[in-house]
Design goal:
eight-stranded mixed β-sheet, 10 helices, 3 domains, D-Amino Acid Oxidase, Chain A, domain 2, five-stranded antiparallel β-sheet, 368 residues, FAD/NAD(P)-binding domain, alpha+beta, single chain
């Protein structure tokens, strides 16, 4: 059949754009089908962390995959800036996990030791008591009983990342069709048909489903189980602060423009509505960690939906029923971005040097 694209990527978020960029770099003809501005997009509500601590403590392949991604971020940021002209504000000076519960602190330290057993000398971390922290970070709250620190952790400006990826894709020849809602996909003997709103069906030789929560509906049409669920996360944004925060943590970070971003809630949900109680809890935690934040004004807040698999690890899946169809979904799209734009694209393209990603096959859920 005549085609509109060699590869159609459904989903124009960070994951979809990274895959598009990687395939375009391999010389593929790529069309990205992007949704509407008001769609529930994890890419527009994430925390912007490049984070290694705790990633894969119970899954060695994920620990190694995350380490490769963290180490690749500096070069990836340079590549995107060169293609897009946008500074991503990447900072990888290390990050903290703060704890006010002793049992949770001890459990997390055990997890990091398990992670280190897998990664060996390539992974380093510290478990710090309150007195250690008070010496390193004068002003830490008395309720913080301890923290962990990893020198490879960092963050980027997530909105700039999204824009930079789109510009880099355009510069690399990727085509876009925006403001579309994909309602159905159909495998044909010579490719795929994609049905969007009331438009004529699009045709492609290959299809990569990067639609986030939308994969739950579209995945089964391509032979995937697509076992994903929504997890609501909430954020507070403060006024700009002249003094730089002397640390980065997984729940408190200062963006390059000066404002603070406070987050960390996790709740199963199917709508991106905010909870006043959860927001109050975020504020309390921030002040417990760093009491000097008590007088900082909160300007706005929002909720967004994470894309979660049953075990929290990515799904990279080829369709057994329909060759040429792929499912890509994860909740660590920022951290894993450098690999999605390189090694994962190699895997999708069938490169003999591509990594073995069998550990991320969705059939693991049936086996377990």
């Amino acid at each position: 059949m005549s085609t509109d694209a060699g590869t159609a990527i459904i989903g124009g978020g960070i994951v979809g754009l990274c895959v598009a960029l990687g395939l375009a770099a391999r010389g593929q003809d790529v069309l990205v089908l992007d949704g509407r501005d008001r769609d529930m997009r994890a890419s527009q509500g994430n925390f912007g962390l490049v984070w290694l601590q705790g990633k894969g403590a119970g899954c060695a392949p994920y620990a190694r995959w995350s380490l490769q991604a963290a180490r690749a971020w500096a070069g990836f940021a340079e590549r995107l800036s060169s293609l897009s002209g946008i500074d991503l504000a990447l900072c990888q000076d290390g990050g903290y996990e703060f704890f006010t519960d002793r049992q949770e602190f001890q459990q997390f330290c055990q997890d990091l030791h398990r992670q280190a057993d897998t990664l060996g000398n390539e992974f380093s971390f510290e478990c710090l008591s309150h007195s250690d922290l008070a010496h390193r970070l004068p002003g830490i709250g008395q309720q913080v009983i301890g923290a962990t620190f990893c020198p490879l952790d960092g963050h980027v400006n997530p909105l700039r990342l999204h824009v930079a990826l789109r510009k880099a894709c355009l510069a690399s020849g990727v085509r876009f069709t925006g403001n579309v809602s994909v309602s159905a996909v159909r495998a044909k003997t010579d490719g795929f048909e994609i049905f969007c709103d009331n438009r004529q069906a699009l045709r492609s030789n290959r299809i990569v489903l990067c639609a986030g929560l939308g994969a739950a509906q579209l995945g089964p049409q391509l032979g995937f189980r697509a076992q994903i669920r929504a997890q609501r996360g909430e954020l507070l944004i403060t006024e700009r602060v002249a003094d730089r925060l002397p640390f980065l943590s997984s729940t408190i970070r200062q963006v390059d423009e000066g404002g603070l971003q406070i987050g960390g809630t996790k709740a199963d949900a199917d709508v991106d509505t905010e909870s006043t109680d959860q927001m109050a809890g975020l504020a309390r935690h921030a002040v417990q960690v760093w009491p000097n934040l008590a007088d900082i004004r909160v300007l706005r807040s929002w909720a967004a939906l994470r894309v979660m698999t049953p075990d929290g690890y990515p799904i990279y899946q080829r369709s057994a029923d329909h060759p040429g169809a792929f499912l890509v979904t994860c909740h660590s799209g920022v951290t894993l971005a450098p690999l999605h734009a390189t090694r994962l694209a190699d895997w999708i393209d069938g490169d003999p040097s591509a990594p073995d990603l069998e550990a991320f096959d969705e059939r693991r859920f049936a086996l377990s």
